Amino acid sequence: MFADWPILSLTIWLPIIGGFMVIASGDREANATRWTALIISVLTFLVSLPLWFGFDSSTAQMQFVERMDWIPLFNIEYYLGVDGISMPLIILTTFITPLVVIAGWEVIKYKPALYMAAFLIMEGVMVGVFAALDAMLFYVFWEAMLIPMFIIIGVWGGPNRVYATIKFFLYTFLGSVFMLVALIYMYYQSGNFEILGFHDLKLGHTEQILIFIAFLLAFAVKVPMWPVHTWLPDAHVEAPTGGSVILAAIMLKIGGYGFLRFSLPITPDASHTLDWLIIGMSLIAVVYIGFVALIQQDMKKLIAYSSIAHMGFVTLGFYIVFIVGQSAGSGAALGVEGGMVQMVSHGFISAAMFLCVGVLYDRMHSRQINDYGGVVNTMPVFAAFMVFFAMANAGLPGTSGFVGEFMVILASFRADFWYAVLASTTLIIGAAYTLWMVKRVVFGDVANDNVAALQDINGREYIVLGTLAAAVLVLGLWPAPLVEVMDASVNNLLQHISVSKL
Amino acid sequence: MQFDSNQLIPVLPEIYILSLACLVLVIDLFIKQENRIVTYGITQIGLLLAVAITVAVGQPQTQIIFDGSYIRDPMSDVLKVGIFVVSFLAFLYAKDYLRDRDLFKGEFYTLGLFAVLGMIIMVSANSFLTIYLGLELLALSMYALVAFNRDSQDGAEAAMKYFVLGALASGILLYGISMVYGMTGTIRFDELGGAIQKVGLDNVVLVFGLVFIVIGLSFKLGAVPFHMWVPDVYHGAPTAVTLFLGSAPKIAAFALAMRMLVDGMEPLVGQGGWQGWQGMLIVLAVLSMAIGNLIAIAQTNIKRMLAYSTISHVGFILLGILAGTKEGYTAAMFYTLVYALMSAGGFGIVIALSRRGFEAENLDDYKGLNQRNPWFAGMMLLLMFSMAGVPPTVGFFAKLFVLDAVVSVDLTWVALVGVFFSIIGAFYYIRIIKLMYFDKPSDESPLSMGVDTQVVLSLNGLSMLYLGLFPAGLLSICHTAIGG
Predict the structure, then answer these.
(1) A with B: how many residue pairs have Cβ under 8 Å apart?
(2) Does residue B3 carry a pLDDT above 80?
(3) Given CB atoms, is B358 within the 8 Å cutoff of chain A?
(4) Cα–Cα distance between A82 and A92 in angstroms, integer?
(5) Considering chain A, what percentage of its residues have pLDDT values greater than 70?
(6) What is the pLDDT of residue B306?
(7) What secondary structure letter does DSSP report for B260?
């Protein structure tokens, strides 16, 4: 029944237009502004729900397609559609944004209207990135994300925010412009900007390698992969809580999504040739960055590094397929699906972890681990949540963190024993840095007077953390629906890349 | 010469602007200083009427009249409308500035209209002689305007530099023209191509003539290494004049390049080699993008910064032209029109922040603009992101189309150089946004602007977003104008 509605357009434009309305309403009635923002974001979530319920998971075809001319002279179209890979990420986006709005409710005192509007506009633009099927439309959304994020970090961030936000902007801008040239090049090969058309485009080996590298620059910066990850800890530490949440939960996923939508299907042979590079970078991210996380003194920085390590799992899962594909049949899908599950799960867990740090920061205005200790004595409910999310972050079975990691490790085993061994170390290192942080912050005796004066979480914070905890549990105990939704699309992708374009 | 009064119809915009300039000159004599607004009003209404007249005489066919010295084609129509609109914006933003500084004089408008006349003559020139006349009329009016504030030493210095270098450039241009004429025996652009083919493309004198013409052209465009005058003149001139100088004449300079190189000497494009104008323009474009963007980073004065930014944008416009295809010319034309709008808006904000006794020239004057006036901070944000080429603003599409054109002629490396320097360029644009949004204001005084300026400046800023979301309209206008 929903098939004829422009649901994707609604999900994109409702928050964007709503965001501009929020800016226009100004800061005079701050409370009304907050409620408007909340209503818009919840409405967007509701509007996006038919995507999940009306989704036909038996086919890899694009669904909810909308298509019209945009710039006819260059064959650029306004062309939207989702498959099993992009749809869960869209739902993730619309699910997280209301939580971000609630999380910033009382905390943001300076220009709340602009803050809320930036997140709403951000939401629409990110949905646009996932839904775009025209490469130029994709690129426009992709770059447009930078503007609200730039403002969010720069205006409401920590002391070193200006450095962080400019670094963030230039890093991601640098990564993506080379992708632009690659897209234009392919436009001249195929005559239009259709992404699905690019998938079937015949490209020579050298061309593929160059295009692959251009994409890698763009997506590796976004994911971020070692060694181009250095913007992320800076951006996270300085960003306000909501900014960190969106950054970790959704923006990083856009890099992973890019690999699935562009790099793998457009340049399968180059991906095959260079898969050692990605696997190597991923394993370094998993192991080395894990150790880097271990020594962090700043909670946000620690979680930021843990995000990089977890995203290493995602890219590992995506690129292991070429090795798996040679030895066994169905194991390849396990890697990609594991990576996808890991992305969604990391969206919940990292959001929750950053929100937990945000809760503490709002009370103590410090993110240093050493300033805390014995928080459980004054904030028992909060401590329960934080320990739960920390367990999930460490990949405890029963939480969503376990599912994705397990699937990827399983796929790595089929590829190469040593890959699996290296990847598995994350279970130990991840547990080490997360639980050690929790031990120092939450447990023990009350460390100082500031901690003694802490108030436990209020209803607003309870709702946000409770919702996320439920999501983590559901996905951990019953991941089947998510895997089912993406199954057809992932298999189609694997089939596509198993055929050489040469 | 057979005189036919029908020949006067295509040339109506020029005749009209000339009469308007004379009318303003005479009327202004009889107006007291407190009624000077009448001069301004006549000029502005006159410019709007000029748009109507240009549209009315416009038609899809090309008309060549006056023994081949004048051409009216769709491209000239579009460019003329662009010049009128951008000049209208420039005069409107300039009004409050001039009034606050006791520069609100009739001469500004007379000189301005003569400059406009020079520009539209360049746009419609079909021979070297006509184009040179238009160029000199524009240049002479501009020299005088740069020194418009008689008591300003900077202004006088800038005008002197501009005059000396401009005269030198005109000389070089004329020298090149004489060589080309000497070899081909014609100065008409529509005959030049055939004559060049007859002489032979590797004729040494012809190639030398081309070199001199390209040098003269790059002086006028402000392309590296002939850019030295740009920052000094932008800086020294009163901001109101910089605004005018930095916007509408870019459209005319684009026409200058199109008429001379494309209409006239397209056989000398030298596709893929270095001896034709494509190779020369590659060097100029790459250097302009590199030097313009790099040196802009070091500037603390926003007028100088925007001057270097102009240089880098000129590099991008040249990229479109050097592609040597219809798509390339379309892209360059789109870029030029968009750039003129961006530049007018950017300087409009500079003027809006200035007031009597205070020039908002330093980057630090933009600190905390978001707190002082969120709306216009937002407009500046759009303009700056547009200049940096970040979607969804129109600046992105301007760059996209140009890059598209360059990639289509297998010059992908030039496109890569272009995007590389646009990343470097992004830094100094977002620095302005950083100052406006992330820093505390050092000066809390509210912005004083007339309602007219507020409305038009807002439209100017929002047009960046509107054209970015719907670029197809303007693009297809440019496409039709180039005749692709």
Answers:
(1) 86
(2) no
(3) no
(4) 14
(5) 98
(6) 92
(7) I
Instruction: Name the band, by pLDDT with cuts 50, 70 and 90, for residue B484.
Output: low
Q: Does B465 touch chain A (CB under 8 A)?
A: no
Is the CB of residue A105 less than 8 Å away from at least one CB of chain B?
no
Q: A294 burial class (0-12, 13-18, 19+ CB within 10 angstroms)?
A: middle
> How is B179-200 classified by DSSP, letter by letter?
HHHHHHS--BHHHHHHHHHHH-
Name the amino acid, one letter, at A40.
I
Using CA atoms, how far residue B457 sits from A147, A293, B223, B342, in Å, is 21, 49, 28, 11
- Residue B160, number of CB atoms within 10 A of its CB: 15
Strands (E), A337-460: none
A191 and B CB contact within 8 Å: no
Identify all chain A residues contacting B385, using CB atoms and an 8 Å cutoff.
147
- Considering only CB atoms, A146 lies closest to which of B390, B403, B472, namely B390
Enclosing H/E stretch for B114: helix B106-123
Q: Does B426 contact A at CB distance below 8 Å?
A: yes
The single residue listed with the structure tokens 């397609």 is A65
Partners of A132 in the β-ladder? A80
Q: Note whether A32 contacts B: Cβ–Cβ < 8 A.
A: no
CA distance readout (Å), A155 to A162, A243, B388, B437: 8, 11, 20, 6
| Residue range B23-35, pLDDT digits in tens | 999 998 898 888 8
Token pair listed for B143: 């020299």
Of B199, B179, B172, B187, which Cα lies nearest the Cα of B267? B199
Q: Is the peptide bond before B446 cis (omega within 30 degrees of 0)?
A: no
Confidence at A204, pLDDT banded by 50, 70, 90: confident
Q: Which of A25, A28, A74, A165 to mutate to test the interface with B (most CBs of B within 10 A)?
A: A74
**pLDDT tens profile A69-117:** 888 888 888 888 888 888 889 999 999 898 888 888 877 778 888 888 8
List the one residue out of A168, A223, A217 whose CA is nearest residue B426: A168
pLDDT at B42: 92
- Tokens standing for residue B412: 């992908």
How many helical (H) and strand (E) elements, i.e. helices and strands, does chain A have? 25, 2
Instruction: Say if CB B425 and CB B293 are below 8 A apart.
Output: yes
**pLDDT tens digits along A232-254:** 888 888 888 888 888 888 888 89
- Beta-carbon count within 10 A of A377 CB: 17
Alpha helix ranges (H) inside B189-238: 189-199, 204-221, 229-236
B365-393 confidence digits (pLDDT tens): 888 888 888 888 889 999 999 999 888 89
Task: Tell me whether A20 touches chain B (CB under 8 Å).
Answer: no
pLDDT digits (tens, 9 = 90+) for A390-428: 989 888 888 888 888 888 888 888 878 888 888 888 888
Cβ atoms of A489 and A134 closer than 8 Å: no
Confidence (pLDDT) at B272:
63
Q: Which residues of B touch A74 (CB under 8 A)?
A: 401, 404, 475
Instruction: Tell me the helix, strand and coil percentages in chain B, rounded to 5.
Output: 75, 5, 20
Q: A119: which 2 tokens? A: 């997140």
Q: Does B416 touch chain A (CB under 8 A)?
A: yes
Q: Determine whether the interchain pair B392/A180 forms a contact, defined as Cβ–Cβ distance below 8 Å.
A: no
* Closest partner CB to A177 (pick from B397, B422, B431): B422
pTM of the shown model: 0.89
Instruction: Locate the chain A residue with the closest alpha carbon to B385.
Output: A147
Task: Indicate the SS3 state at residue A338.
Answer: helix
Minimal C-alpha gap between B392 and chain A (Å):
6
Is residue A3 over pLDDT 70? no
Residue A93 sits at the chain B interface (C-beta within 8 Å): no
pLDDT per residue over B162-182, tens digit each? 999 999 999 999 999 999 999
CA B197 to chain centroid: 32
